[in-house]
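Re: beginner question about structure tokens

> Can someone show what the tokenized structure looks like for a real chain? I only ever see the sequence side.

Sure, here's an example I had lying around. Input first:
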Amino acid sequence: MSAVIFPLAADERDREKDLRARFAQFWSTATGDPRTVYDTFISATPFAEGVSSEQVETGSVRGWWVRPPVAEHVGVILYLHGGGYVGGSAKAYRGLASQIASRTRRPVFVLDYPLAPEATVPAVPDAVMAAYEWLRANGSEQIAFSGDSAGGGLSLVTLARLAHGSRPSAAIAGVVFSPWVDLAFTGASMKDAQIEDPLLTYEYLQAGARMYLGGADSRDPLASPLFGDLSGLPPLLIQVGSDERLLDDARQYAERAAGAGSQVRLEVWQGMHHVFQVNVADLQTSGVALDRAAAFLVEAFSNR
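And the corresponding structure tokens:
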């Protein structure tokens, strides 16, 4: 399949350069618990105007509802956050979720799934399935999945499980940002010296994979959806930057899903870093990408 390539404008190139300098400053000076530092970094994404949030804690599900000021009556979005399976939280991702909620006019539930090394495969994907079932039990008949990085991978794991399950699925679409789909590290971009990923290193991903896998095979589809059955999936949109280690994760997944007959759209944004959508306050490109992601989701809800 062919990807849609979005070139980087000259003025955006300067803004991206300044942003990368700020990344370097933050990560070189940040101290404290790694999970807290990561949440501080991610929570810089601003809340969209008028969006509210509400914490949820039940016996089986924890997370945050993020609700637009005016919501459509049909459809919710289940968002799975990134963090390499070892970090990230629903609370920190409320800003990004609010940008999606505002643009789609749909409520977004951001799940707090258990993190590694405390939890591994299959406990983590099972926790996502439990959240999906909780949404169904509470009246959600149309559920779109979205997520970034590790959460993007989890979204695709769950969509494959639902596609080949024994009961009709309420999943109507998936939108993932820079998904991590290959914990066997078969993509060439993982070690490509020409890629200058300002946020992810090969070593960081390897460490996260070891903790998350536990004793599981790195090619187990519950950990690496790239190696699963990719037929029968709902419509998918994958967005990825050209300057990131997970570039080939996105490319390979899109190719295999399309080859299996699933409807998938791949967008490669030139000069962009890992999960650049979080930087909507700094880059026009981030807002444009989120607009496209929201339009894809709205169309999927309408078609259903």
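Each token stands for a local structural state, so reading them left to right follows the chain. Residues 27 and 37 are 9 Å apart (CA to CA).
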